[in-house]
Amino acid sequence: MEVKEVITETPDTTTFRLQFKDPEVAKSFNFKAGQFGEYSVFGEGECTFCIASSPTRMEYLECSFKKYGKVTSALARLNVGDTIGLRGPYGNYFPIDEMKGKNVVFIAGGIGLAPVRCIIDNVLDLRDQFKDITIIYGARSVADLVYKNLLKEWQERKDIKTIVTVDPGGETPDWKGEIGFVPSIVEKTAPKSDNSVAIICGPPIMIKYTFPVMTKLGFREDDIITTLENRMKCGLGKCGRCNIGNVYVCKDGPVFTYTQMKELPQEF
Amino acid sequence: MENKNQDPKIVAFVCNWCTYTGADLAGTSRLKYQPNVRMIKLPCTGRIDPVFIIKAFEKGADGVLVSGCHPGDCHYNAGNYHARRRWIMFHKLLDYLGIDESRLHFSWVSASEGKKFVDVVNAFTNKVKAKGPFKKYENINKEFVING
Amino acid sequence: MEEKIISKENLLKLCSDLLKNNVDIVTPGEKGYIKIKNESEISLNSKSKHTKASFKEYVFPKSEPIIYYKKNQSDVEIIEPKVEEKTTVIFGAKPCDVRSISILSKIFNWDYKDEFFNVRSRNTVLIGMMCEYADEFCFCTSVNLSPTSSDGSDVFLVPHDENTFGVKIVTEKGADLLKPYENYLSAGNSEKTKAIEASVKQPEKVFDAEKVRQWISGNFENDYWNSIGKMCLGCAQCAFVCPVCHCFDIVDEDYNYYEGRRMKNWDGCQFDMFTKHASGHNPRDDQSKRYRQRISHKFKYYPDKFEEILCTGCGRCSRGCPVTIDIKGIVTEINELAIK
Amino acid sequence: MDDIKTVAKELLTSGKVNAVIGYIRYGNDKRTKPFIAQKPEDVDKFVINNFILNNLAVYLTRKEVSKLGKVAVIAKGCDAKAITALIQENQIKKEDIHVIGINCNGVTKDFDIDFNSENIAGKCLNCDVRTPKLCDSLVGALADIPSGEDLKLKMIRGVEAKNAEERWDYFEDEFNKCIKCYACRQACPLCYCEQCIVDKSIPRWIESSATKRGNFSWNLIRAFHLAGRCIGCNECERACPMDIPLSLLNRKMAMIAKDEFNYDAGTDMNAPTLVGSYDLKDNEDFIE
Hints:
The complex is a heterotetramer of chains A (268), B (148), C (340) and D (288). In chain A, 26% of the residues lie in helices and 29% in strands. Chain A is globular, with a radius of gyration of 18 Å. Chain A has 268 residues and is of the alpha/beta class. In chain A, β8, α5 (148-156) and β9 form a beta-alpha-beta unit. Chain B has one domain (10-141): Rossmann fold, CATH 3.40.50. Chain B has helices at residues 19-28, 50-58, 79-97, 114-131, 135-141; strands at residues 10-15, 37-42, 63-68, 104-108. Chain B has a four-stranded parallel beta sheet, sandwiched between helices. The longest helix of chain B has 19 residues, at 79-97. Chain B is globular, with a radius of gyration of 16 Å. Chain D has ten helices and five strands, in the order αββαβαβαβαααααα. Chain D folds into two domains: 17-139, no CATH class; 151-261, no CATH class. Chain D has a five-stranded mixed beta sheet with strand order 2-1-3-4-5. The interface between B and D is large, with 38 and 45 residues.
């Protein structure tokens, strides 16, 4: 795949806009919101993250990543025109068909917006098939907010409710959004819980504290959906490292409901 | 990698304060030396980790030159003394494992010894040239190589 | 199942012919399974101790390239390696080892099919041999195998005496291998084979795998795991000598800036690095959690998913463990906890 | 001389230590395994015999054990050397541990074999620390030990006698057996790095593949990282499932340290380490 555009989201987060080099592959490639890919920089290795763009917009693929380890650092060094490898799509996806006709709440923290964004765009492209849409997004500081343009776009739309928050201490003098941790903002916002589905993604600690809030608000455990993350290598359910109990996150995940997660050994 | 006999690859790990400046002096004095050396500058010989040398051989170096300040001249007082002790152990280990000692050369070259740097490089290049390519290491490098 | 008899002399002739026909023969050697050059090296001893490592590496190599790449400017060319289709005969393997291939093929063939494994296992003919060795680490009977089980073998040998062997032809593949050499075989004596099989000492059955599975399900947070975690040193000796451990790592290696390969290497769940995320978060950050994963994977997760215990009871991991962590002992203790 | 059980029990009941690391019999009579006793009654299982092969010093730097607080550890002379080296390298503090030294009568090469002149471990043959140099209490009594031939030394001399090419071929073949299980590293009391050089991936200095190149580099660097530090307990070699003669490297490095610097690892806990110090008069014949 060829890197078509490099967007620097935050000092350490980058978004790539990618296009297939082979038009045949481009035609046959399709995926569903929530699936992930194995991106590779040849000579450095492979790295797993979700496809951040919506399957309804196939002219390009997008992925966002935070510079952390060997491969993400190598990715961050790439320029427009460079080639990367992509295997995928792997894993399961958000149950978008079952979500139709319901209220949808999206809750994301930090780089966790990337997988959620995929489904948000997907839902927004089919806006009339869903009821109320609420997006709650938080990051450590204003500088750490990703997809700033998109956030602005969402906030300007009248048919969705978008709340952006930063952790206390992360605000700038001219910050106009909310200040506070995601779980408490969720509680304050109190989105409607009947006939609703919530999609949550963010750092483990945020997910952990958001779950009780959601149950308190009256969400059914089956309707709380999150995407898990584990160290993965093969993406094919072979190499064994993403294994939690009976499931392979790369095959049976990454999308799990709260009910499913409670049944798993608490090892993630 | 072709024409190895004529063209050995040599990696030099040098200290910033003495040998590198010495090489600079050789340049400004318009002294010529053989162009096979790829120089890597480090703050001090004490920074030269043996893994650098292993990596150089892994990546196809036919010889490795390590050079820094004379004893007593270290910019950081004792870096080269520490390095010396490490090299004593390391070059004996390599010898024991069967890596030809003449492919690894240690020297002290000070900032004023531009001439000595030229001599060291030329002598070492000729020595490695005479030895030919480092076949043994190449063999283990090329296991599972493309096209067989 | 057809049964024949072969003399030792003819068996050696058979091996010699196979070698001449460019078939690789792998046999238990003194230290590990070895590829032999001469038929005299063949192992015909059913009383020998298990080799330190299993023959896993002949179907699932310790390191193998999965792709090669060549970069030029900004473009990348990918070359996929082909696994050589060459017949390999694993000769004289113990019943516990032989069984490993069918267990492994479950994981390598659910969902995505791993061609590297499949090509190799398709070209591997397994000649198993009855086992008359049992020490305190053997527990094949506890995982529903036995020293006389021909399950998994293509051809199974039962030594009648020093110079004659009963030959059970178990599968088509086994029959195809022996077909050209039919004149080496004579009519079988299944009575004698049965009698010999009945006389073999079986390791005692020490646990009930189903009970163990149930106990593990309900005891994820049991203090018992901690007691093992403290002793384990965290090497992967156990996983690497295991005939059925199959976890691997994928890393890129380069020859130079432009060329390189992507390697698939064995990996082990006892390493701290195995599950460590780039962010530093580690779901299994303690040795006891890692050991729990090992046991649970073998006796619960794998049976749940593939209906096959991920263990053949060969006892290699325990025999070789630097601190003698004995899987048989541990699972037996779990069994006792389960009964309580 | 006190009995191991009495000493260990006293330490635990008096609360001087929270745990005692020792050996218990396992399976047959010719096998033991390490065991951490946290209750006084656990101590009754402890044994001292010719099959206590493990070097228990390896546990002292482990996270799971250091959580327990102050521990006592049973140490043979060679194990006590490892403890000394760990103190020398500031990995543990002398006051945090209690060393129960044992008068050692030699151990076997491996489990499940008889203790006799053929099977005695090579390191025991010319042992000069049968009574540990570093210990807080001492148990057991010395007895005569069988003498045997130091086969490993003979092997080292054999390798030295070869020419460079033969040596390379020899080690290439030996290292090629390596499967990168890192049992050698994990069993080594002095391999305590939080992240081993082979696990470092940015950049990846030593390849993790078990290919000829990766294996050669790994075994080379492992030997070098233990140069002047290896105390010769030989646990790496015993742990190796592929029977790579690792002591050929480690012992050779110790011999070099002795020849060049007259340095013995693990003998003085207050001495500077070999590679952490230097001498103005170090040999530099090989440097031009």
